[in-house]
Amino acid sequence: MLIVRWLIVFSMLCSTALYAAENDLQDLRRDDGNPNEWRLVFNNKTQKIKTYFKKEDKKRVRSFRMEAELDAPLSTVANVEFDADNYKNWYYQVEESKLLKIVSDTEFYTYIRYNSPGGLPDRDTVFQTVIKPYSKKTGYMMMLIKNKDDYIMPSNGITRIAVLDMVAKFTPIGTQKTLMEIEGYMDPGGFAPMWAVNLVQRTTPLTTIIGLQRMLLLPRYSSPTYNNPFKYTE
């Protein structure tokens, strides 16, 4: 079953890569419709995953959006999302991740270093995560993520990400499922050719969601004894 699962994932990624290549050529040749509207990039009805992008005025790269129905309760999803030291095991192309500081039970700082494609310099960033816990009034948990470049200096040979700004919303569906909606913008900083930006933007959302789904299957994150220093619900 494990082999079959990975064959399915590999097939999804290959199909996405071919689809992305065709659309990247179209993006370079023309801009159909309203450039400020979300454009559907990937839609898998079986896995219940959708990814989008849109071009916005005065931004050099596209904003992104992704939606996925996760087969886990909010508590398990929160345990994975708050485990910053483990991001390197499921975030797309993350070579290093570590929790830098716990400010409170609803705020922390994280360092991440990304492996860039095509021999380009690796990227890194320090970002602040602010948690808005689930409440009956809102009906969801939210994470606000923004880069904080002045927290630590970048390492030699690594390009600091210019902008990272994301909002992640997690809404329980019954007791055993969670709807995840993420919208954001990331400017990789430095020299970033069009092909590299397109590759990362089209590949990152899907592969990251697949990685998250894999983490949600680990028993430790669903264990009632799991030590989570952060608050996901009021």
Structure write-up:
This protein has 234 residues and is of the alpha+beta class. The protein has a single domain, classed as START domain (Alpha-D-Glucose-1,6-Bisphosphate, Chain A, domain 4), CATH 3.30.530. The chain has 4 helices and 10 strands. It has helices spanning 2-29, 74-81, 194-215, 219-222, and strands at 39-44, 49-54, 63-70, 94-104, 107-114, 123-132, 141-147, 159-160, 163-173, 177-187. Strands 1, 2, 3, 4, 5, 6, 7, 8, 9 and 10 form a 10-stranded mixed sheet that branches. A hairpin with an 8-residue loop joins strand 2 (49-54) and strand 3. The protein is globular, with a radius of gyration of 18 Å. It starts with a helix and ends in a 12-residue tail after the last helix.
How would you describe this structure in keywords?
Alpha-D-Glucose-1,6-Bisphosphate, Chain A, domain 4; 234 residues; 4 helices; disordered N terminus; alpha+beta
CATH class wording: Alpha Beta
- The H/E string reads HEEEHEEEEEEEHH
Gyration radius, rounded: 18 Å
**Helix content, binned percent:** 25-40%
Mean of pLDDT: 85
**What is the CATH architecture assignment?**
2-Layer Sandwich
CATH topological fold name: Alpha-D-Glucose-1,6-Bisphosphate, Chain A, domain 4
Q: How many domains make up the coordinates?
A: 1
Determine the structural class based on helices, strands and strand pairing: alpha+beta
> Strand content of the residues, in percent?
25-35%
Shape: globular
Q: Can you summarize the main beta sheet?
A: 10 strands, mixed
Distance between the termini: 39 Å
Compute the number of strand runs: 10
Helical segment tally? 4
The poorly predicted ranges are: 1-31
Fourth-level CATH superfamily? START domain
